[in-house]
Every structure is written in C-alpha cells, then in structure tokens.
Amino acid sequence: MVVIYPTPKNVEAFDRHYFDIHVPLAKKLPGLRKYEVSDGRIATPAGAANIHRIGTLYFDDLAAIEKAFASAEGQAAAADRRLFAPDDSGVQMFLFDDREV
Fold this sequence. Notes:
Elements: E1 2-6, H1 11-26, E2 34-37, E3 43-44, E4 47-48, E5 51-58, H2 62-70, H3 72-84, E6 92-94
Antiparallel strand pairs: 1-5, 1-6, 2-5, 3-4
C-alpha cells in the first residue's frame, strides 16, 4: 500500500499530526508487516515534486489490506487521515498485490 501526500499548507502541523497521532494509529493495523515513510526531499526525474510525504505499508496481500481497514483499528486510522489530509487534499492511495521479479 502506498499513500502519497501532497505538500500541505502547514508542513509543521501536518508532520506533527502525522508522526504523533497517525503513525501510532496505523502501526496498530492488524496484519501490518512494515511501515516506511519518505525522509527528505521527494523528486521526479524532471525535478522537484509537489509531494511532501510518501508512506509505504506492507501487508501479505491485498486481502490483508482490506481486512486491516475493515477492522476497528483500520477505521480509526482512516478517520484520522481524513482529519489531516482530507479526501479533497489530493492525497492518493494505492492498494495492490505485488510480486518479486
């Protein structure tokens, strides 16, 4: 699962909420194997991006992601995300199975 957050108007407030409240909630998701967060500047091959933070959450498969977000912990994390990154903020979420190549 990859979550991409555009640069917010108040970066300090976003980061404070994200790291102090949201990450601890998300780390309680059932089936979560690993949680990584971008650190530092995010760029594209064409230069700077208007992306502030990328979160990558690892689960066994797509079914495990769906089960995690159907849980009480998942509902709490989803509700919290809407507080600091509302649906109209440009946040993007991608849920998928993957395979090693």
